[in-house]
Amino acid sequence: MEQVIHDKAKKEKSASQDPCGYSVADEETEWLQSFLLLLFRSLKRHPPLLLDTVKNLCDILNPLDQLGICKSNPGIIGLVGLVSSIAGMITVAYPQMKLKTH
């Protein structure tokens, strides 16, 4: 995160020196890149959070398909169900991979 902040400060300094080369689109993509980088690093450092996130993303697809919000074919629904089940089995087999709530 410190590296991202340092790079951002460096870009802002160079943008203030050359205002025609910097646009709103650059600012939006920079924000998105910073967010995705932070998300990736957080999930990489906390495997239980990654496992729970993957399981929840898989679990949400079936109701969205049933409600007609996001249509998927039966193969995709079966695949995400399988991934969700495997993620659940991992948390049972390895209790340290279970997301702890306080």
TrEMBL record:
GO biological processes: peroxisome fission
Xref: Pfam families: PEX11 (PF05648)
Composition-biased stretches (Basic and acidic residues): 1-15
Species for this entry: Sapajus apella (Brown-capped capuchin)
Main location: membrane
Transmembrane residue ranges: 75-94
Superkingdom classification of source: Eukaryota
GO cellular component: peroxisomal membrane
Stretches for region Disordered: 1-20
Keywords, in A-Z order: Membrane, Peroxisome, Peroxisome biogenesis, Transmembrane, Transmembrane helix
Protein name per the record: Peroxisomal membrane protein 11A isoform X2
Cell compartments where the protein resides: Peroxisome membrane
